[in-house]
Amino acid sequence: MHLKEAKGILSARNGMNISRGCTHGCIYCDSRSRCYQINHDFEDVQIKSNAPSLLEDALKRKRKKCIIGTGAMSDPYIPIPENLAGIRSCLEIIDKYGCGIAIQTKSDLILRDLDLLISINEKAKCIVQTTLTTFDEELCKIIEPDVCTTKRRYEVLKIMQDKGIQTIVWLCPFLPFINDTEDNLRGLLDYCIDAGVYGIIFWGIGMTLREGSRDYFYKKLDENFPGLKDVYQKKYGYKYEITSDNNNKLYKLAQEICKKHNIVLGTGNLFKYIAEFEEKTNDQIELF
Fold first, then answer.
1. Any idea what DSSP says for residue 36?
2. Using alpha carbons only, what angle is made at residue 20 by residues 42 and 229, rounded to the nearest 5 degrees?
3. Which residues does 257 contact at the CB level (< 8 Å), separation at least 6?
4. Pairing of the two strands 241-243 and 206-208
5. How many CB atoms are closer than 10 A to CB 273?
6. Which has the closest alpha carbon to 193: 111, 104, 257?
7. What pTM did the predictor assign?
8. Where in the chain does DSSP place strands (E)?
9. Per-residue pLDDT tens for 74-115?
10. Alpha carbon 90 to chain centroid, angstroms
11. How far apart are CA 134 and CA 141, in angstroms?
């Protein structure tokens, strides 16, 4: 871990990352791609030491309240004390200014800040998002080795449901020949249904590989799935988008199940929902 003072904190669309890099060890991580120009060891997480002060200054100058998004590039709950202190301070500032939050994480450490998420949700909109890839717990430990498993993330979703906080699941990626099966998809969807998720962000059955992330993925295939790298290289070459042979069948299955259970499936409508600021009325606040 190393600290760095940043020049800014919010993107044009109010996205925020308080760190760069990660220690979760997910074998498919797109954030390792060279196009993102992380010029230090990925596991040597760079933390923006002045993120809270930058955020407060930015929100002071906002003419309108907004939704702050975080976690798209780097998980806000990487288990480093300085990082955890930074995200809590940022949540306190978001709560102070009456803004909303759309926070994405694979870690159950988010429960430490449940009090702040509830407070934000009472005044504005709080959306908790998590990624689910693998119903099989042992397989999950291989492809996402240093973060809580799928079952625990499902339990976090249930807790958020109980507290009235909306949840969205990123159902991806599906790695060909590894977790691109009907049993896996059905298991993950059962978790989503039982946890009452609002929506599922879903591009289909496959994954993406770019320079940098591809190198790491293939290294991990050699370590954990001997011989599979050769299958990938022969079938997909250097393609960026890799689509499973099971895509059409499983995509249709996901559509049918989500429609039956009134779960919003896709990307466009959900990204719009995530970005829209909603301020709670007095009647809504009283419900809490």
1. G
2. 40
3. 186, 189, 193, 263
4. antiparallel
5. 18
6. 257
7. 0.94
8. 2-4, 15-16, 19-20, 46-48, 67-70, 100-104, 126-132, 166-171, 199-201, 206-208, 241-243, 264-266
9. 999 999 999 999 999 999 999 999 999 999 999 999 999 999
10. 18
11. 9
